[in-house]
């Protein structure tokens, strides 16, 4: 017969074994569930650009890991709301997810009078994906080379300068308004319907300036067709380390990077959300993927589930104050 001490040791060994294997069983169950059907990554904007790139990277990575087809569903329209609605109505089983930019989560809920979603109630925040600085660019014909050059010109000749953005209430419009407030200058905002037409007018000299995310203007900076006056981030971008930040040039408080994230339908279990966050970050951390993103000015940002949810809440509150203070309204 076993002694009491031997029985105790045996019981403790069994308990330790069960504790060690329980996460493995849970992980295997999730893996099995995720391997049951194809993955759809909804990108609520047209093909091309950071959203499309990130969606395709994730679709390829998930397909490879789970042995299922990964597809990208470009569903543009209604400022991204059509694609968002597709995901809201999907099952929270991890097979339909949304790749979305910051503005749809942190600006539109305040700016749109009839915003049709509750970000917290209709979606599960899975993980941040990547970030890129916004950059203020100028047509070389302006002669502007630095932020102090711009501020000096704007103060000497009020209302003589204008800047373009993808539209009223976009993150890039708000970046411009925050810059004007922090630098105490008055520059006319010209709203466009998207980045492309604004960029074309800056390249053509119709307007002198534009706030843009880095991927959209990077080729033109490299070719010399545009001049970068500063990046709106806390530190310089590894993709363009020679471009100084606004803070370095004497204008603090304009730290507004663009970021992109992964959401799922509401009702997803915490365990599944954590697994998908881990999968996404593992995919983005692969050296070839990281290099692919870097060439487009994107850097992986690892902020998951609960911490990501808090970030959305904090940034929404920040933009609500800016929108109210500057009297910004949708036309």
Distance N terminus to C terminus?
Answer: 85 Å
The CATH architecture of the largest domain would be 3-Layer(aba) Sandwich
Outline type: globular
- Strand proportion, as a percent range, falls in 15-25%
Please count the helical segments: 13
Instruction: Please write the CATH class name of the largest domain.
Output: Alpha Beta
**Tell me about the biggest sheet?**
6 strands, mixed
SSE order: HEHEHEHHHEEHEHEHEHEEHHEH
* Low-confidence parts: 16-26
Radius of gyration: 23 Å
CATH superfamily annotation of the largest domain: Bordetella uptake gene, domain 1
Q: Name the structural class.
A: alpha/beta
How confident overall, as mean pLDDT? 90
Oligomer: single chain
Keywords: Signal
Signal peptide: 1-26
Organism: Hydrogenophaga electricum
InterPro entries: BUG, Bug_dom1
Model description:
InterPro entries: BUG, Bug_dom1. Keywords: Signal. It holds the Pfam family TctC. This protein has 13 helices and 11 strands. By secondary structure, the chain is α/β, with parallel strands linked by helices. It folds into 2 domains: 168 residues, D-Maltodextrin-Binding Protein, domain 2; 116 residues, 3-Layer(aba) Sandwich (D-Maltodextrin-Binding Protein, domain 2), CATH 3.40.190. The strands form 2 sheets. The protein has a 6-stranded mixed sheet with strand order 2-1-3-10-4-11, with helices on both faces. It has a 5-stranded mixed sheet with strand order 7-6-8-5-9, sandwiched between helices. α2 packs across α11. The chain starts with a helix and ends in a 5-residue tail after the last helix.
């Amino acid at each position: 017969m076993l002694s009491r001490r031997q029985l105790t040791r045996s019981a403790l060994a069994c308990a330790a074994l069960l504790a060690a294997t329980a996460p493995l069983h849970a992980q295997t169950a999730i893996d099995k569930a995720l391997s049951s059907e194809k993955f759809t990554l909804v990108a609520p904007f047209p093909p091309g650009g950071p959203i499309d790139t990130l969606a395709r990277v994730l679709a390829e990575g998930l397909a490879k890991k789970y042995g299922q087809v990964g597809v990208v569903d470009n569903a543009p329209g209604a400022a991204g709301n059509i694609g968002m609605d597709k995901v809201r109505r999907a099952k929270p089983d991890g097979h339909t997810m949304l790749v979305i930019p910051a503005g749809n989560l942190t600006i539109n809920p305040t700016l749109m009078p009839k915003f049709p979603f509750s970000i917290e109630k209709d979606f599960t925040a899975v993980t941040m994906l990547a970030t890129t600085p916004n950059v203020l660019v100028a047509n070389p014909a302006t002669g502007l080379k630095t932020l102090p050059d711009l501020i000096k010109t704007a103060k000497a000749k009020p209302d003589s300068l204008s800047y373009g953005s993808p539209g009223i209430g976009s993150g890039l419009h708000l970046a411009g308004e925050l810059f004007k407030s922090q630098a105490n200058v008055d520059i006319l905002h010209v709203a466009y319907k998207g980045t492309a037409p604004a960029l074309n007018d800056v390249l053509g000299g119709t307007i002198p300036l534009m706030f843009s995310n880095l991927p959209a203007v990077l080729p033109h900076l490299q070719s010399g067709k545009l001049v970068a006056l500063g990046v709106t981030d806390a530190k310089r971008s590894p993709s363009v380390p020679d471009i100084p930040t606004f803070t370095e040039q004497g204008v603090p408080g304009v730290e507004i990077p663009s970021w992109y994230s992964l959401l799922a339908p509401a009702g997803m279990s915490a365990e599944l959300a954590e697994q998908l966050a881990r999968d996404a970050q593992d995919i983005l951390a692969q050296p070839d993927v990281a290099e692919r993103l870097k060439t487009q000015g994107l850097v992986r940002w690892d902020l998951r589930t609960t911490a990501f949810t808090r970030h959305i809440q904090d940034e929404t509150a920040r933009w609500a104050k800016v929108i109210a203070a500057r009297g910004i309204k949708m036309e």
